[in-house]
Amino acid sequence: MTETLEKKLDHLPTEPGVYKHLDDSGSVLYVGKAKNLRTRVRSYFQQGRKRSGRIEVMVQKIADVEVIVTDTEVEALILENNLIKELQPRYNVNLRDDKTYPYICVKNERFPRVFKTRSVRNDGSKYFGPYTDVKQLNQMMDAIRSVFQLRTCKLDLSKEKVEAGKHEVCLQYHIDNCQGPCVGEQSEADYQETIDQVEQLLNGHTKALTAHLKEQMEAASANLDFEEAARLRDQIQALETYSEQQKIVSQDFEDRDIFGLHVDREEGVGCGTLFRVREGKMIGRRHTYLHQIEGRTDEELMLSFVEDYYASAHFYPNEVLLAVDPNDHPTQDTVPLEELLRQEKGRQVPIRVPQRGDKASLVRMACSNAKLLVNEYKLQRMKRERDRIPEAVKQLGEALQMDDLPKRIDGIDISHLGGTETVASCVVFLNGTPRKSEYRTYKIRSVEDGTPDDFKSMREVVRRRYTRMANEGGPWPDLLVVDGGKGQLSSTVTVLKELDVYGLFPVIGIAKRLEEIFRPGDPDPLYLGKDHPSLKLLQNLRNEAHRFAVTYQRKRRKKKTLRSELLDIHGIGEKTAQTLLREFGSLKQVKQADTEALAAVVGPAKAQKVVDFYREGEPAEA
């Protein structure tokens, strides 16, 4: 941290607000909100503070900090949400829909139009949605057209032009689909009352709206205005038809928002789902995919999703149900969210995490939908990856004269130290990219220390890997690459034939000295140009397999060295040494542990022997 930045941190305000972390080029790394800006921002730079790897990397890049003071925490929440959407900082949770779903827009104009749109603009209009189910959206628009007589034209209905008679009525007026505001036949106040009723319907409040229309119908009938009463009757029938199509999910007819969450840590993606329930009926579902989730808890992700929704919402329910509680995470603070709901609703809105009963079932349903959407996203991403085949993969398939492209490649390498500590690795490349979650290491059992035998080691690894693959039904590679020449290739082919899987996929060997590529049954090696993209792909695969094998070997050797020191203690055997290292994590931690801590793991007698051994004099650490 620079001296300038340190001075800046000392003079930050203590009021609530929003802060921006910037790198040395002025780009925004992260946007956050705080109850106390000075305390929150300084916490990032505290020595010894436990942080995730993602935040640790970000802190190293911070060159400057900018803050914006707000009057309240609620204002900070809304401002943070807007800045994140505008700036898309790298280290914030990235919330986005998988595609642009349609909304219903109530246009900001003198006589507002109501129409479908996929473009949300900051023009003062109100947007309801998004609607992930287009059928439901069309049902809603049909109900609006049937119940209300709204204009559909794009005419400028300013007061001056209407009074000057600049417009004429159209067909919609003559077939009673519009009441003619363009020629002054409908007042602005009367039209706005209709728009208020439309917004009631869009917010799911059909019960109150139906009751209001029935009162108007009865009043019209009492005044002998039977034409108006018949029109209102038809509106009520259309409204009741639409209401019957909505799914009832609770019998208490309450307004509530139900938030679900599912996170796939391995794939680095999550999904938040929202079920909007109005008067006990499901009126819509919304979902948002969550990216850049590394180092974030489920509670943090849930809070980000919920805050993102309510910072720009038009309606606030009587109750909020969550899958996980953000208050369970000590760094999270839901007070701004609770205060926002209280201010907008005019009273306290309970935020609950139900564990049993009907409400818990609704939350589980939301989480199940989130899981389905994550799986759908993964399938779509796999399809995109399959469709985006690198040129190196295509050229490798052509060079090897393969019928199918080698999209999935296994690479096997053997490593040992002068015939000792023999290990093997198998790495997987998918579309030319390492698939590290599918890497595997093997401790070679068939070769004795001191007698290196790469061919025998290769046969063991191939047998173990593809026996298991045959039992589990794959996934089979499109190509197997073994590090070595004709001998390693021959050993591999022999085992594949024994397993009766030879021919399911091509296999080649690559010799390092001249980068020769050997194929079964071909006495002459294949040479690719040193700048050939497919050769670089094979080299990357081989180097990655070697790196992974050597890393595994070093890890084993280090554990063995540490265990050997503990084995110098009289009365400590192999099993006890392994237990100590596993429980304490390192030899240094074992040395520093007191008798009581050691006794809890290996018993008081052995604990005393360990303590006495290191008190007498520690051997040099390997």
Low-pLDDT regions: 618-622
Number of helices: 21
Number of domains: 5
Counted beta strands:
20
Write down the Rg.
Answer: 34 Å
Structural class: alpha+beta
CATH class of the largest domain: Alpha Beta
Silhouette: elongated
CATH architecture of the largest domain: 2-Layer Sandwich
CATH-assigned homologous superfamily of the largest domain: UvrC, RNAse H endonuclease domain
What percent of residues adopt helix (DSSP H or I)? Answer: 40-55%
**Span between termini:** 35 Å
Outline the biggest β-sheet: 7 strands, mixed
Mean pLDDT comes to 83
Beta-strand fraction estimate: 15-25%
The CATH topology of the largest domain turns out to be: Nucleotidyltransferase, domain 5
Give a quick rundown of the structure.
The protein is of the alpha+beta class and 622 residues long. It has 21 helices and 20 strands. The chain folds into 5 domains: 3-92, GIY-YIG endonuclease; 103-248, no CATH class; 256-271 and 287-309 and 320-379, no CATH class; 392-555, 2-Layer Sandwich (Nucleotidyltransferase, domain 5); 568-616, DNA polymerase, domain 1 (Orthogonal Bundle).
Descriptive notes:
- The model is unreliable at 618-622 (pLDDT under 50).
- This protein is an alpha+beta fold.
- Helices cover 45% and strands 18% of the residues.
- The protein starts with a helix and ends in a 6-residue tail after the last helix.
- Strand 15 (420-430) and strand 16 form a beta hairpin.
Helix and strand layout, with pairings?
Elements: H1 3-10, E1 17-22, E2 28-34, H2 37-43, H3 53-61, E3 64-69, H4 73-87, E4 94-96, E5 103-106, E6 114-117, E7 126-128, H5 134-147, H6 159-163, H7 171-174, H8 188-202, H9 206-222, H10 226-244, E8 247-248, E9 256-264, E10 269-278, E11 281-291, H11 298-310, E12 319-322, H12 335-345, E13 351-352, H13 357-387, H14 391-399, E14 408-417, E15 420-430, E16 433-434, E17 440-443, H15 454-472, E18 479-483, H16 486-498, E19 507-511, E20 516-518, H17 533-567, H18 574-584, H19 587-592, H20 595-602, H21 604-616
Parallel strand pairs: 9-12, 12-13, 14-18, 18-19
Antiparallel strand pairs: 1-2, 1-3, 4-11, 5-6, 5-7, 8-11, 9-10, 10-11, 14-15, 15-16, 15-17, 19-20
Helix pairs in contact: 4-12, 5-10, 9-10, 14-17, 15-16, 17-18, 20-21
